[in-house]
Amino acid sequence: MLKYIIRKSLVTIPMLFVISIIVFFAIQLSPIDPISYSASPDVAVDSENLEALREHLGLNDPLYIQYYHWIIAVFKGDFGYSIITGQPIAKILALKLPATIELSLLALVISTIIGVAMGLVSAIKPNSMSDYFSRNVAVLGISIPEFFFGIIIIQIFAIQLGWLPISGRIGVNDVTFWDRLPNLILPSFTLAIGMLAVLLRYTRNSMLDVLSKDYIKTARSKGIPEWKVFIFHAFRNSLGSILVILAFRLPMLIGGSVIIEMVFMWPGIGNAIISAVSSSDYPVIMITTMMLASAILVASFLVDVLSAFLDPRIRLE
């Protein structure tokens, strides 16, 4: 198992290196000049000033030299500065990323508990009322855009009923996590609805597939209680595909929270990404893109390790 993990780790490193090359050179193809965009009017009217600024920032160096300096700085933990605000990118991440992670983790917990539970009930009692209800929930969760669902629940629970706050993360007197939990409920449920639907369908289909296997019939023929058949035989063997979805969805939740953060005015990394893209803040765009790509690679690595742990045939191959 250790050799398998080391081999997968060695594959991940060059993939991250290739992604960094793609991200850096793709940004350079943009037609917008960030220096002209960010320079003050008195500097922008003088081409010599702009050229001096480019020279100072190293933008006149060959692209491979710029990439070398950038990737070495990233490995040292120096993410650079925003060319629009002048704020260190590390500070932007430190301020914004915890809010997004908090929102994404709660959405992951909600969607996992509800989605897997509904999928199990639906598989155990196929073609029942609970199965039809779960399948309709899955269809609605996949077909309705998350931002539209967010607007609906804001109208119902925040505006009409007044039970929960409309937007923001922290109130005036909020100190602990439990103080700001009401602010988390609406955006986390909105972010969770899509993943809940996917998990529900995968759990149901995976369980139904496993329940049709011969070893399930053998376990039943031995007189094993039905609940043990479902939990220890069927659910355990269907965990592989469910864990794959869970591992891949967390980085996708972080990246997909951009629209939800805008709807609920959530002060997360999504707002920083939107602001950086709209203002062509290249350093911020490159670092946030690398961050999301790294999260997806780590998720892929975890999927491989978990799959190998659950199925010895994978690591033996």
UniProtKB/TrEMBL annotation:
<feature type="transmembrane region" description="Helical">
    <location>
        <begin position="184"/>
        <end position="203"/>
    </location>
</feature>
<dbReference type="GO" id="GO:0005886">
    <property type="term" value="C:plasma membrane"/>
</dbReference>
<keyword id="KW-1003">Cell membrane</keyword>
<dbReference type="InterPro" id="IPR045621">
    <property type="entry name" value="BPD_transp_1_N"/>
</dbReference>
<protein>
    <submittedName>
        <fullName>ABC transporter permease</fullName>
    </submittedName>
</protein>
<feature type="transmembrane region" description="Helical">
    <location>
        <begin position="284"/>
        <end position="310"/>
    </location>
</feature>
<dbReference type="InterPro" id="IPR035906">
    <property type="entry name" value="MetI-like_sf"/>
</dbReference>
<feature type="transmembrane region" description="Helical">
    <location>
        <begin position="12"/>
        <end position="32"/>
    </location>
</feature>
<keyword id="KW-1133">Transmembrane helix</keyword>
<dbReference type="Pfam" id="PF19300">
    <property type="entry name" value="BPD_transp_1_N"/>
</dbReference>
<dbReference type="InterPro" id="IPR000515">
    <property type="entry name" value="MetI-like"/>
</dbReference>
<feature type="transmembrane region" description="Helical">
    <location>
        <begin position="136"/>
        <end position="164"/>
    </location>
</feature>
<keyword id="KW-0812">Transmembrane</keyword>
<feature type="transmembrane region" description="Helical">
    <location>
        <begin position="103"/>
        <end position="124"/>
    </location>
</feature>
<keyword id="KW-0813">Transport</keyword>
<keyword id="KW-0472">Membrane</keyword>
<dbReference type="GO" id="GO:0055085">
    <property type="term" value="P:transmembrane transport"/>
</dbReference>
<feature type="transmembrane region" description="Helical">
    <location>
        <begin position="242"/>
        <end position="264"/>
    </location>
</feature>
<feature type="domain" description="ABC transmembrane type-1">
    <location>
        <begin position="97"/>
        <end position="303"/>
    </location>
</feature>
<comment type="similarity">
    <text>Belongs to the binding-protein-dependent transport system permease family.</text>
</comment>
<dbReference type="Pfam" id="PF00528">
    <property type="entry name" value="BPD_transp_1"/>
</dbReference>
